[in-house]
């Protein structure tokens, strides 16, 4: 009984802190200083990390989330021009997406704005390799695969953003990154491909470009990333790859061996499990 009472007390504390943090964010003005905004956002970020997924939470906790959820999507935060504020807002929204998973936390148009912000944060901070904002960018990338957030992107009909994300991964990955970044990028791209109703030529193009033979020397990590994705998704990609090779009149010998194999072997299966 004592243990249960302690759990209830902790939950009530979290709910109270959620309400206070959300109320403070709602009170912010466009004229508020960046330091003030950041202080309130950091408090919101810290408490959101302590919240379990909504499906496992009691109704009072769900209600306590409303002020923070409402504040984060307002233009004064979502479209703030300060770089540090952008990253912390994105981190809070990443937590909100985790908490409400598998349901999306906002309306479609708002989710599109959120994913645009996520892409801004990934482009601006993933290559820094150190610091709090880098850690936040890594968590966003991680949850896109682990929490299947990228599937929400696919439902929003923002195909070009997903293509641009693939291209960004191949352009950015380098030996300087820790192996976990390679893993997260691979997870996200594999999930997109496997869950797509069909693989467009636009999506396939950056993947093919990454495994051109000459790219193996120019950008070996990018080449390896593309090769692994081809191998993991070989069954799904094979028919689209064959069509692309014919349509673009490509010479398969100019690409990694996996491309040649998929184009010449009807019974090709995934090389990796």
TrEMBL record:
Keywords: Cell cycle, Cell division, DNA damage, DNA repair, Mitosis, Nucleus. InterPro entries: ARM-type_fold (IPR016024), Pds5 (IPR039776). It comes from the Eukaryota. Coiled coil: none annotated. It is found in: Nucleus. Its main location: nucleus. It holds the Pfam family PDS5. GO terms for cellular component: chromatin; nucleus. One of its GO terms (biological process) is homologous recombination. SUPFAM superfamilies: ARM repeat. GO terms for molecular function: cohesin unloader activity. This is Uncharacterized protein. It comes from Erythranthe guttata (Yellow monkey flower).
């Amino acid at each position: 009984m004592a243990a249960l009472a302690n759990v209830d007390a902790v939950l009530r504390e979290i709910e109270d802190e959620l309400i206070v943090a959300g109320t403070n964010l709602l009170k912010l003005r466009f004229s508020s200083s960046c330091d003030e905004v950041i202080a309130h956002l950091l408090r919101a970020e810290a408490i959101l990390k302590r919240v379990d997924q909504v499906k496992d939470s009691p109704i009072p906790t769900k209600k306590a989330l409303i002020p923070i959820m409402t504040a984060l999507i307002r233009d004064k935060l979502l479209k703030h021009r300060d770089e540090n504020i952008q990253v912390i807002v994105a981190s809070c929204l990443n937590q909100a997406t985790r908490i409400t998973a598998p349901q999306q936390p906002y309306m479609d148009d708002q989710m599109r704005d959120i994913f645009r912000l996520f892409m801004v944060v990934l482009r601006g901070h993933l290559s820094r390799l150190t610091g709090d904002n880098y850690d936040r960018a890594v968590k966003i990338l991680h949850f896109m695969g682990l929490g299947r957030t990228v599937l929400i992107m696919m439902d929003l009909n923002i195909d070009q953003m997903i293509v641009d994300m693939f291209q960004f991964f191949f352009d950015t990955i380098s030996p300087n990154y820790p192996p976990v970044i390679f893993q997260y990028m691979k997870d996200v791209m594999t999930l997109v491909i496997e869950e797509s109703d069909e693989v467009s030529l636009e999506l396939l193009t950056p993947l093919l470009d990454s495994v051109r033979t000459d790219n193996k020397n120019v950008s070996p990590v990018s080449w390896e990333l593309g090769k692994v994705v081809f191998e993991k998704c070989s069954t799904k990609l094979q028919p689209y790859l064959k069509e692309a090779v014919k349509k673009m009149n490509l010479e398969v010998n100019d690409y990694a061996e996996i491309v040649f194999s998929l184009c010449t072997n009807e019974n090709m299966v995934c090389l990796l499990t």
